[in-house]
Amino acid sequence: MIEAHDLTKRYGETLAVDRLTFSATPGHVTGFLGPNGAGKSTTMRMILGLDAPSEGSVTINGTPYRHHRYPLHEVGALLEAKAIHPGRSSYNHLLAVAQSNGFGPKRVKQVLELVGLEHVARRRAGQYSLGMGQRLGIATALLGDPGVLLLDEPVNGLDPEGIIWVRTLLKSLAAEGRTVFVSSHLMAEMALTADHLVVIGRGRLIADTSVADFVSRASGARVRVSSPDAARLRQLLLERSSEVGTIEPGPDGEAPTFTVAGLERSTIGDLALHHGIAIHELTSERASLEQAFMELTADDVEFRAHGADQPDEVAAAPVAAHRKA
Q1: Which of 117, 215, 236, 282 pairs with 209 at a CA distance of 20 to 30 A?
Q2: Do the strands 148-152 and 75-78 form a parallel or antiparallel pair, or are they unpaired?
Q3: pTM reported for the whole predicted model
Protein backbone atom coordinates (compact mmCIF):
# COMPACT_ATOMS: atom_id res chain seq x y z
CA MET A 1 0.00 0.00 0.00
CA ILE A 2 1.17 3.51 -0.84
CA GLU A 3 0.03 6.35 1.43
CA ALA A 4 0.84 10.04 0.90
CA HIS A 5 -0.08 12.67 3.49
CA ASP A 6 0.20 16.38 2.68
CA LEU A 7 3.08 15.56 0.35
CA THR A 8 4.74 18.79 -0.79
CA LYS A 9 7.81 19.58 -2.87
CA ARG A 10 9.31 22.97 -3.61
CA TYR A 11 12.18 23.81 -5.92
CA GLY A 12 13.11 27.33 -4.91
CA GLU A 13 10.00 29.42 -5.55
CA THR A 14 8.39 26.70 -7.68
CA LEU A 15 5.76 24.57 -5.93
CA ALA A 16 5.92 21.28 -7.84
CA VAL A 17 3.70 19.22 -5.51
CA ASP A 18 1.13 20.88 -3.28
CA ARG A 19 -0.07 18.99 -0.17
CA LEU A 20 -1.04 15.76 -1.93
CA THR A 21 -2.94 13.22 0.13
CA PHE A 22 -3.95 9.92 -1.47
CA SER A 23 -3.50 6.18 -1.20
CA ALA A 24 -3.04 3.27 -3.59
CA THR A 25 -4.47 0.09 -2.11
CA PRO A 26 -3.82 -3.64 -2.60
CA GLY A 27 -5.90 -5.48 -5.15
CA HIS A 28 -6.32 -2.49 -7.46
CA VAL A 29 -4.62 -0.90 -10.44
CA THR A 30 -4.45 2.78 -9.53
CA GLY A 31 -3.92 5.09 -12.50
CA PHE A 32 -1.89 8.21 -11.76
CA LEU A 33 -2.91 10.92 -14.24
CA GLY A 34 -2.19 14.56 -14.87
CA PRO A 35 -1.15 16.98 -17.63
CA ASN A 36 2.51 17.54 -18.44
CA GLY A 37 4.09 19.47 -15.60
CA ALA A 38 1.46 18.33 -13.09
CA GLY A 39 4.03 16.84 -10.70
CA LYS A 40 3.57 13.13 -11.40
CA SER A 41 7.24 12.26 -11.83
CA THR A 42 8.22 14.34 -8.82
CA THR A 43 5.61 12.53 -6.72
CA MET A 44 6.83 9.13 -7.86
CA ARG A 45 10.42 10.07 -7.09
CA MET A 46 9.39 11.10 -3.57
CA ILE A 47 7.57 7.78 -3.09
CA LEU A 48 10.86 6.03 -3.91
CA GLY A 49 12.99 8.31 -1.76
CA LEU A 50 14.85 9.78 -4.74
CA ASP A 51 13.61 13.27 -3.82
CA ALA A 52 12.98 14.40 -0.26
CA PRO A 53 9.61 16.06 0.44
CA SER A 54 9.67 19.68 1.54
CA GLU A 55 6.71 18.82 3.77
CA GLY A 56 4.48 15.85 4.43
CA SER A 57 5.27 12.16 4.16
CA VAL A 58 4.81 9.11 1.98
CA THR A 59 5.09 5.47 2.99
CA ILE A 60 5.07 2.05 1.36
CA ASN A 61 3.43 -0.59 3.53
CA GLY A 62 3.60 1.83 6.45
CA THR A 63 7.33 2.59 6.13
CA PRO A 64 9.29 5.19 4.13
CA TYR A 65 11.09 3.56 1.23
CA ARG A 66 14.58 4.31 2.55
CA HIS A 67 13.81 2.49 5.82
CA HIS A 68 13.00 -0.83 4.16
CA ARG A 69 15.90 -3.22 4.72
CA TYR A 70 15.27 -5.05 1.44
CA PRO A 71 13.27 -2.53 -0.59
CA LEU A 72 13.20 -4.62 -3.78
CA HIS A 73 11.15 -7.21 -1.88
CA GLU A 74 8.62 -4.50 -0.98
CA VAL A 75 8.32 -2.37 -4.12
CA GLY A 76 9.33 -2.76 -7.74
CA ALA A 77 9.69 0.43 -9.75
CA LEU A 78 10.05 1.54 -13.36
CA LEU A 79 10.75 5.24 -13.76
CA GLU A 80 13.11 5.26 -16.74
CA ALA A 81 13.19 2.01 -18.70
CA LYS A 82 16.58 2.44 -20.36
CA ALA A 83 18.44 3.89 -17.36
CA ILE A 84 20.98 1.05 -17.55
CA HIS A 85 24.49 0.66 -18.93
CA PRO A 86 24.09 0.26 -22.71
CA GLY A 87 27.01 -2.14 -22.93
CA ARG A 88 25.57 -4.56 -20.39
CA SER A 89 23.27 -7.39 -21.43
CA SER A 90 19.82 -7.63 -19.91
CA TYR A 91 20.86 -10.85 -18.20
CA ASN A 92 23.90 -9.28 -16.56
CA HIS A 93 21.94 -6.17 -15.61
CA LEU A 94 19.27 -8.24 -13.88
CA LEU A 95 21.85 -10.54 -12.30
CA ALA A 96 23.70 -7.59 -10.74
CA VAL A 97 20.45 -6.21 -9.31
CA ALA A 98 19.40 -9.66 -8.12
CA GLN A 99 22.66 -10.47 -6.36
CA SER A 100 22.68 -7.11 -4.59
CA ASN A 101 19.27 -7.99 -3.15
CA GLY A 102 19.82 -11.64 -2.27
CA PHE A 103 18.45 -13.34 -5.43
CA GLY A 104 20.14 -15.83 -7.68
CA PRO A 105 20.23 -16.59 -11.44
CA LYS A 106 17.04 -18.66 -11.20
CA ARG A 107 14.92 -15.58 -10.51
CA VAL A 108 16.65 -13.70 -13.35
CA LYS A 109 15.66 -16.43 -15.78
CA GLN A 110 12.08 -16.39 -14.51
CA VAL A 111 11.54 -12.66 -15.08
CA LEU A 112 13.26 -12.74 -18.48
CA GLU A 113 10.81 -15.44 -19.56
CA LEU A 114 7.90 -13.53 -18.04
CA VAL A 115 8.60 -10.39 -20.11
CA GLY A 116 9.60 -12.29 -23.27
CA LEU A 117 13.30 -11.35 -23.39
CA GLU A 118 14.83 -14.77 -22.81
CA HIS A 119 15.97 -15.07 -26.45
CA VAL A 120 17.81 -11.73 -26.41
CA ALA A 121 19.07 -11.90 -22.83
CA ARG A 122 22.74 -11.84 -23.89
CA ARG A 123 22.34 -8.91 -26.27
CA ARG A 124 23.63 -5.54 -25.15
CA ALA A 125 20.82 -3.37 -23.79
CA GLY A 126 22.04 -0.43 -25.88
CA GLN A 127 20.85 -2.35 -28.96
CA TYR A 128 17.32 -2.74 -27.60
CA SER A 129 14.35 -0.94 -29.09
CA LEU A 130 12.25 1.31 -26.86
CA GLY A 131 9.71 -1.47 -26.41
CA MET A 132 12.38 -4.01 -25.45
CA GLY A 133 13.77 -1.50 -22.98
CA GLN A 134 10.32 -1.19 -21.43
CA ARG A 135 10.14 -4.96 -21.02
CA LEU A 136 13.56 -4.97 -19.34
CA GLY A 137 12.43 -2.20 -16.99
CA ILE A 138 9.34 -4.19 -16.06
CA ALA A 139 11.50 -7.29 -15.50
CA THR A 140 13.69 -5.29 -13.11
CA ALA A 141 10.61 -4.07 -11.23
CA LEU A 142 9.33 -7.65 -10.84
CA LEU A 143 12.67 -9.12 -9.80
CA GLY A 144 11.95 -9.09 -6.06
CA ASP A 145 8.39 -10.40 -6.47
CA PRO A 146 7.19 -7.27 -4.62
CA GLY A 147 3.75 -6.55 -3.25
CA VAL A 148 3.83 -2.99 -4.59
CA LEU A 149 4.51 -2.00 -8.22
CA LEU A 150 5.16 1.60 -9.24
CA LEU A 151 5.44 2.11 -13.00
CA ASP A 152 5.86 5.32 -14.99
CA GLU A 153 4.54 5.04 -18.58
CA PRO A 154 5.09 1.25 -18.83
CA VAL A 155 3.49 0.89 -22.30
CA ASN A 156 5.53 3.65 -23.92
CA GLY A 157 7.07 2.28 -27.12
CA LEU A 158 5.25 -1.04 -27.05
CA ASP A 159 3.38 -2.44 -30.03
CA PRO A 160 -0.33 -3.38 -29.69
CA GLU A 161 0.51 -6.93 -28.59
CA GLY A 162 2.89 -5.56 -25.97
CA ILE A 163 0.31 -3.08 -24.68
CA ILE A 164 -2.25 -5.86 -24.24
CA TRP A 165 0.40 -7.95 -22.47
CA VAL A 166 1.18 -5.13 -20.00
CA ARG A 167 -2.52 -4.53 -19.40
CA THR A 168 -3.11 -8.22 -18.68
CA LEU A 169 -0.01 -8.41 -16.48
CA LEU A 170 -0.97 -5.41 -14.34
CA LYS A 171 -4.53 -6.60 -13.85
CA SER A 172 -3.34 -10.09 -12.92
CA LEU A 173 -0.82 -8.69 -10.42
CA ALA A 174 -3.57 -6.62 -8.80
CA ALA A 175 -5.84 -9.68 -8.74
CA GLU A 176 -3.12 -11.41 -6.66
CA GLY A 177 -3.57 -8.70 -4.04
CA ARG A 178 -0.68 -6.45 -5.02
CA THR A 179 -0.73 -2.66 -5.15
CA VAL A 180 -0.21 -1.43 -8.71
CA PHE A 181 0.39 2.30 -9.17
CA VAL A 182 0.88 3.31 -12.80
CA SER A 183 1.10 6.61 -14.66
CA SER A 184 0.24 7.00 -18.33
CA HIS A 185 -0.77 9.56 -20.92
CA LEU A 186 -2.76 6.95 -22.86
CA MET A 187 -6.27 7.58 -21.58
CA ALA A 188 -7.87 4.81 -23.62
CA GLU A 189 -5.46 2.30 -22.11
CA MET A 190 -6.01 3.60 -18.59
CA ALA A 191 -9.76 3.21 -19.09
CA LEU A 192 -9.18 -0.50 -19.80
CA THR A 193 -6.53 -1.10 -17.13
CA ALA A 194 -7.19 1.02 -14.03
CA ASP A 195 -9.81 0.42 -11.33
CA HIS A 196 -9.08 3.65 -9.49
CA LEU A 197 -7.67 7.05 -10.44
CA VAL A 198 -5.55 9.64 -8.70
CA VAL A 199 -5.58 12.78 -10.87
CA ILE A 200 -3.43 15.83 -10.19
CA GLY A 201 -2.91 19.21 -11.84
CA ARG A 202 -0.27 21.82 -11.00
CA GLY A 203 0.77 19.65 -8.09
CA ARG A 204 -2.69 19.59 -6.51
CA LEU A 205 -5.15 16.73 -6.15
CA ILE A 206 -8.06 16.96 -8.60
CA ALA A 207 -9.68 13.56 -8.08
CA ASP A 208 -9.19 10.37 -6.07
CA THR A 209 -11.98 8.11 -7.26
CA SER A 210 -13.02 5.18 -9.43
CA VAL A 211 -12.81 5.43 -13.22
CA ALA A 212 -16.60 5.29 -13.54
CA ASP A 213 -17.17 8.06 -10.97
CA PHE A 214 -14.49 10.24 -12.56
CA VAL A 215 -16.12 10.02 -15.98
CA SER A 216 -19.58 10.57 -14.53
CA ARG A 217 -18.41 13.60 -12.55
CA ALA A 218 -16.95 15.18 -15.67
CA SER A 219 -19.80 15.12 -18.11
CA GLY A 220 -22.74 13.21 -16.71
CA ALA A 221 -24.97 11.02 -18.83
CA ARG A 222 -26.46 11.91 -22.17
CA VAL A 223 -29.09 9.99 -24.12
CA ARG A 224 -29.02 9.62 -27.88
CA VAL A 225 -32.56 9.67 -29.29
CA SER A 226 -33.67 8.63 -32.76
CA SER A 227 -37.25 9.10 -33.92
CA PRO A 228 -39.07 9.65 -37.24
CA ASP A 229 -40.93 12.44 -35.40
CA ALA A 230 -37.76 13.93 -33.92
CA ALA A 231 -38.83 17.58 -34.19
CA ARG A 232 -42.03 17.05 -32.19
CA LEU A 233 -40.32 14.91 -29.56
CA ARG A 234 -37.48 17.40 -29.22
CA GLN A 235 -39.96 20.22 -28.60
CA LEU A 236 -41.65 18.21 -25.85
CA LEU A 237 -38.29 17.44 -24.24
CA LEU A 238 -37.26 21.11 -24.29
CA GLU A 239 -40.05 21.70 -21.77
CA ARG A 240 -38.24 19.40 -19.32
CA SER A 241 -34.55 19.95 -20.10
CA SER A 242 -32.55 22.88 -21.43
CA GLU A 243 -29.83 20.52 -22.64
CA VAL A 244 -31.35 19.14 -25.82
CA GLY A 245 -29.10 19.00 -28.86
CA THR A 246 -29.91 19.95 -32.40
CA ILE A 247 -31.43 17.41 -34.77
CA GLU A 248 -29.07 15.62 -37.13
CA PRO A 249 -30.17 13.61 -40.19
CA GLY A 250 -29.85 9.87 -39.79
CA PRO A 251 -27.53 7.91 -42.12
CA ASP A 252 -28.96 6.28 -45.24
CA GLY A 253 -32.50 7.52 -44.71
CA GLU A 254 -32.74 6.41 -41.07
CA ALA A 255 -34.64 8.46 -38.50
CA PRO A 256 -33.09 11.79 -37.37
CA THR A 257 -31.22 11.87 -34.05
CA PHE A 258 -30.44 14.29 -31.22
CA THR A 259 -29.05 14.09 -27.70
CA VAL A 260 -30.57 14.93 -24.34
CA ALA A 261 -28.87 15.58 -20.99
CA GLY A 262 -30.49 15.66 -17.57
CA LEU A 263 -33.21 13.10 -18.30
CA GLU A 264 -33.22 9.33 -17.90
CA ARG A 265 -33.95 7.04 -20.85
CA SER A 266 -37.11 5.81 -19.11
CA THR A 267 -38.42 9.38 -18.80
CA ILE A 268 -37.85 10.04 -22.48
CA GLY A 269 -39.42 6.73 -23.48
CA ASP A 270 -42.49 7.26 -21.29
CA LEU A 271 -42.97 10.77 -22.70
CA ALA A 272 -42.78 9.49 -26.28
CA LEU A 273 -45.25 6.69 -25.51
CA HIS A 274 -47.68 9.10 -23.88
CA HIS A 275 -47.72 11.26 -27.03
CA GLY A 276 -47.75 8.34 -29.46
CA ILE A 277 -44.29 9.06 -30.87
CA ALA A 278 -42.25 6.19 -32.29
CA ILE A 279 -38.74 5.70 -30.92
CA HIS A 280 -36.03 3.99 -32.99
CA GLU A 281 -33.15 4.47 -30.55
CA LEU A 282 -32.55 5.39 -26.90
CA THR A 283 -28.87 4.96 -26.11
CA SER A 284 -27.06 6.18 -23.00
CA GLU A 285 -23.82 7.96 -23.83
CA ARG A 286 -21.03 8.81 -21.44
CA ALA A 287 -17.85 10.73 -22.01
CA SER A 288 -14.70 8.71 -22.54
CA LEU A 289 -11.96 8.85 -19.92
CA GLU A 290 -9.97 11.06 -22.28
CA GLN A 291 -12.85 13.51 -22.62
CA ALA A 292 -13.41 13.56 -18.86
CA PHE A 293 -9.69 14.06 -18.24
CA MET A 294 -9.49 16.96 -20.69
CA GLU A 295 -12.56 18.60 -19.16
CA LEU A 296 -11.49 18.31 -15.53
CA THR A 297 -7.85 19.29 -16.09
CA ALA A 298 -8.48 22.10 -18.58
CA ASP A 299 -7.45 24.78 -16.08
CA ASP A 300 -4.29 22.92 -15.06
CA VAL A 301 -2.54 22.51 -18.41
CA GLU A 302 0.92 24.06 -18.16
CA PHE A 303 1.55 24.36 -21.90
CA ARG A 304 -1.16 25.14 -24.41
CA ALA A 305 -0.94 25.79 -28.15
CA HIS A 306 -2.56 28.99 -29.42
CA GLY A 307 -3.71 30.28 -32.78
CA ALA A 308 -1.54 31.22 -35.72
CA ASP A 309 -1.61 34.86 -34.64
CA GLN A 310 0.78 33.97 -31.82
CA PRO A 311 3.70 32.33 -33.66
CA ASP A 312 6.18 32.37 -30.78
CA GLU A 313 3.96 30.26 -28.53
CA VAL A 314 3.01 27.95 -31.39
CA ALA A 315 6.66 27.37 -32.17
CA ALA A 316 7.29 26.41 -28.55
CA ALA A 317 4.37 23.97 -28.42
CA PRO A 318 6.14 20.91 -29.93
CA VAL A 319 8.87 21.17 -27.30
CA ALA A 320 6.38 21.70 -24.47
CA ALA A 321 4.26 18.79 -25.57
CA HIS A 322 7.13 16.37 -24.94
CA ARG A 323 8.06 17.66 -21.53
CA LYS A 324 7.54 15.04 -18.84
CA ALA A 325 5.58 15.79 -15.70
Answers
A1: 282
A2: parallel
A3: 0.76
